[in-house]
Amino acid sequence: QVQLVESGGGLVQSGGSLRLSCAASGSIFSINFMGWYRQAPGKQRELVATITSGGTTNYANSMKGRFTISRDNAKNTTYLQMNSLKPEDTAVYYCQGIVKLRRLGRDWQYWGQGTQVTVSS
Question: Could you read off the pLDDT of 9-27 as tens digits, one per residue?
């Protein structure tokens, strides 16, 4: 049906930058929300940032000023630009999409498989 595929993770030194991408594909009518979450070892999954189809953004406090979420509605893709990375940003980053499969249908939540981000000190 719907797939979300993340890319762009990797190993970076403290203070460096990475840009994550998440492309949604399948039988999509619209994507109301797209977001990024992360989960570090031994910790719960936490919000990083979200963005609506109209471009309204929301960030977790610890990411404000360092991370920027954006999206290309025509490509059903969201991006996460991460600057000034810290070792504590090390985690698996997951993409989330709140998707309508038809015009009057309900919203469905989909997740990507995750991409590892490792920040070395």
Answer: 999 999 999 999 999 999 9
Quote the CA–CA distance of 114 and 109 in Å, as a whole number. Answer: 15
- 49 bridge partner residues: 36, 59
Q: DSSP characters for the chain?
A: -EEEEEE--EEEETT--EEEEEEEEES-SEEEEEEEEEE-TTS--EEEEEEETT--EEE-GGGTTTEEEEEEGGGTEEEEEE-S--GGG-EEEEEEEEEESSTTPPEEEEE---EEEEEE-
How many other CB atoms sit within 10 Å of the CB of residue 50? 19
As to burial, measured by CB atoms within 10 angstroms (0-12 exposed, 13-18 middle, 19+ buried), residue 69 is: buried
- CA–CA dist 87, 76 (Å, integer): 30
Query: For 80-113, what is each residue's pLDDT tens digit?
Result: 999 999 999 999 999 999 999 988 889 999 999 9
